[in-house]
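Two proteins follow. First one:
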Amino acid sequence: MSCIQEKIIGEIQDSIEAKQKVLDNSEILKTLELMADQITETLKKGGKILLCGNGGSASDALHFAGEIVGRFQKERKAYNAIALNADVATMTAIANDYGYDQVFSRQVEGLMTDKDVLIGISTSGNSKNIIKAVEKAHEIGGKAYLFSGKDGGKLKDICDLCIIVPSDVTTHIQEVHECLYHILCGLIENAMIEVYRN
């Protein structure tokens, strides 16, 4: 086996171990179930999901919103989700006029109601623009959830529900996040289909 192949195997094993740590953590599993239940209730009551992230987490926010608005695995009606980092014109206008720290909070102020939920995605838990977005969401009376890693940073102390992947490696945190988004989307989709069937 070549050194490169050993490196590849090592990376895959590390990724599997990060997922195994989540699988062995009953608190994370309970929180994911609760998050699915609460987001389903939000959608049933006509609320929406707002998402935000930076860099790779911005891509995750887009991916998550796409699965909710489009569909995940089953044919069904569209649900309401918006990735706040999708609108480049709005983001750059806010960054130019107010600073990058407010690119999400300003949108939360304009788009969020007390029926809605904000999902912040930050592998460190310390992204200033997401902290400000969560603070604004709470001012409005909405809920704020977190997907993070490491120790959850400052965001873990101000969010209503937190999924904190027990890893210090950003890439593995992101890989676990994607797995959890898919599970969450499936749980929400199945629950919402039952709502419209009954």
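Second one, unrelated to the first:
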Amino acid sequence: MKKLIDVCQIDAFTDEPFRGNPAGVVYSDELSKEEMQLIAREFNASETAFISKSVESDFNLRWFTPTVEVKLCGHATVASIHYLKQRGIIQDNSSFNFKTLSGILKCSTQNGIHSLSLPIPELKIFEGNKEEIIKALNGGKVINPGKFPFILDNGGYLYIHVSSLRDLMNIKPNFRELLELSLARKGYDTFTLFTSETIGKDNHAHLRFFAPYYGINEDPVTGSANGPLLLVLRKLGLIEKNTEGKKYRFEQGDVLGRNGRIIVSYSPSKNELTISGKAVT
């Protein structure tokens, strides 16, 4: 007998339909990994989230791109929180946990704002060949690693400063070359380009995220990149070191017509990194 699977599309990091980053969300205890991958490929969002019951946490959560399972996805987690609240499975002003491949994610929802705490990444200055990356990004005139070094985290996310918002918007990468660099196992497999120039006067950074290795040339709004970006900005001296009790607002997706906004906070005293945003069905 064929299974009837309900896949709900939810736009994360926005309160407007057809903005932010769309994710598929499925709640089922009966799917194999192979079936999850087939559903994600068919749905063809950047990520599809699969929620199931858990004996070790409140819920299990897994994420699949159309081609592979990934260890972390911020926007599909926000979409999953929205799904659970909309279906009445969790209540407003509540906290709960997801068991994931990245460990236990602490989550909450309050007055339509959905939040999750991300694993704290290890950051280091990237010492590899930067020129081949700049060439693949077609960013020769707007990326200056002598002024701001590339930063690599232990999850393979490479962070690259771009001189201005206009230059960031105009970058047109060679995705085949980016894929080849990622496949060469040089320590990175995604590319986060960012600038401190923003569209909104109260925002703190604008970014773009390229991940052809995972079947995603450009992701509209990437929670797992926006969170660590706050730590990157601290490391590069682009924001103050004392972030305790402060909230930072980042922009992404405008170049794709799917503009989204993410609130990021980092508590040094608790060593806790949190991303927050809205979602809409």
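SUMMARY FIELD: The chain has six helices and 18 strands. Residues 74-86 form the longest helix (13 residues).
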